[in-house]
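Quick start: read one record
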Amino acid sequence: MNPEQHLSATDPPLGAAGLGQPGCPPEAAALRERVRAFVRERVMPCEPVLDAGGDAARSTLRGLQAEAKRAGLWALPLPEEYGGQGLGLPLYFHVAEAEGASDHGPAALGSAPLLDVLMLARHADGTVRDRFLRRIADGEVRTCYAMTEPETPGTDPGLTATRAVSDAAGGWVLHGRKWFTSGASDADLVTVLARVDDEGPGTDSLSLFLVPASAAGFTVVRELPVLGAGGQWEIELDGVAVPPEQVVGAPGQALRIAGERLVLGRVLRCLRWLGQAERAFDLMCLRARSRSQSAGPLADRQLVQQMVFDSLLAIRSTRPLVHEAAARLAAGGDARLETGLAKVAAARMLQQVADAAIQVHGAAGLGPDTALPGLFRTGRTARLLDGPDELHITAVARRVLRGYPVTSRTEPSGR
C-alpha cells in the first residue's frame, strides 16, 4: 500500500515537522486544516492523472475545482471584488503551506492565478480588468507568465531579445521566443516581457504585454520536460498583434511590476516547498516505522534516526526564515534580503528532505508508488528556476555588505 494513503485529515498536522509554524492565528489554523484535508484526501489521489496532462487531467482538475467551490475553499486569497474570498496575505501565508503540499493544490483551490490577478488589478487598463479579472478568478480564463528566453540569461532581463514594434493603430507587434513558461499549453492569456525599441541592452525599454494565446502568430513550440516531468513550455511570437490597452502598466515599467510579483511569488513558493518537505518527512517517518528487516524496524537504525533528525532540523530552521520574509512583505516592507535567504534555504531544504526520504524508502523511493520522485525533482529544480542559488546568494551578500562602513581597521585595538 502507498504509505501516503495512511495520511488523513485526522492525523497530527503533518507530524513533528508541522508543529513549528510561528504565530498562526486560530482562524488561519482552522482554515489551514480544512485545506490540508482537501489537498490530502481529494487532490493527492488524483496526482497521477494530473501529472500526465491532456484531456483527462483537464477534466479531473475541473472536477476538483468544482469540489473546492462547494467546500467554500475556492480562491481564498483573491480579491472579493473579482470573485475571490479576500483572505489577506498575512492569513493566507499560513494556509499556503498546506495548499502547496501538492503541486496541483493551488490550481485545484483557485489560488494559482493570484500573482496575475494582483498584477492586472494594479496595473492593467480598466477595459482589461473588466473583461478578464472575474473570469480569471473563476477559473474560466487561464493565465501564464513568459519572461525567460532560450538564448538569454534569465538572471539578466536587460538582455531580453523579444521585441515589440509599434504599429499605425497605436498597438504593438511582438516577435520573439520564450521558454520555461509554466502552463503555456493550457493558457488563454500570456503576459510577455518584451523590448519596445531596437536599441542595445537595457531595462528602460522593457514592457509587459497581455497576449491572447489564440492570437495569430502565437505558437506553443514544444514541451520542455524538467528531469522527465512536463509542465514547462517554449512559445514563439511571430508577428503577434497586441492592442494598446493590453500593455500592462506604463511603457518601460516592466521590471518594477515584475519585481512586485517576483517577491510575492518567491515567498509563496517557499511556503509551498515547506508543505512539500513536510509531506516527504511524513512519508520517511511512516516508512521507518513500518518497514522491518531481519535486524528489526528501520526506525531503530541510528543512521535512519540521523536522517530523521537532520530533516526535521532543516524544516524547523527554514520555516522561521520563510515566515519572516512573508511577514515583512505583508507589512509592506522591503523583503528582498529576507526573501533571498528564504528562497535559497527552502530550495535546499526540500531537496535534502526529499533525498533523505528516498534513501529510507530504498528502491521504492525511486518508483511511481510514492510522491518522492516528484518532490525531489521540485527541490532540485527550485535551486535553478526563479533565480539560481548563486544569484540570491550574491544579491543578499552585497546588500548586507553595503551596510558596513569602509575602514582600514577590522577590530578595535583595545587601547
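Strands lie at 143-146, 163-166, 172-182, 189-195, 206-212, 218-223, 232-242, 247-248, 292-293, 296-297.
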